[in-house]
Amino acid sequence: MFSEQVTSIRYSEDDGGPATVESSGSLSTAQYVLVVACDGLTSRTRAIGLGGNVREHMHPLYSWAAFFTIKKDLIDESKLVIFYSAPGGHLIGTGLNPSGGNIIGFMALHRHPDEQSIHSFREASKQGIDATKKFVYEHYKGSGWGTDEILAEMMATGEFYSTEFAQVKPPTL
Question: Residues of 121-145 as b/e, b for ≥16 C-beta within 10 angstroms?
């Protein structure tokens, strides 16, 4: 069931029997002996199958990352990925983009739940890509290793993705 949104999962009365799965897409209701949810940290399918809300089984790691492409080649077409570790749990990586330029990754690695960075990241993420780019810019500016130049390129790119790091720990099945 790729590209479908699961709307309900009903389990068989027989232990080990098939599950009846309904979707909101073009597929009709069907029975499956195995349902695998591959729809991310806030999986609606997992919430339907196990009960609860989409964040119930998600345990934050208080870290986040942003990935984007830039037109400039900062590593002279090297096939190596180059990382720079900056103070404060900041990691910056760049690699060659096969389409030209570089692919950049910024990772903010923290361990403490009171770390303001993750709360600010979540708020920026709720506001959209422009707010998230602004947050990343403010978080990383002045970190060294040409970061300010990379950040200027980030603000202009149309290819940008960010995510929070977390673990999914469902109850034992």
Answer: beebbeeeeeebbebbbebbeebee
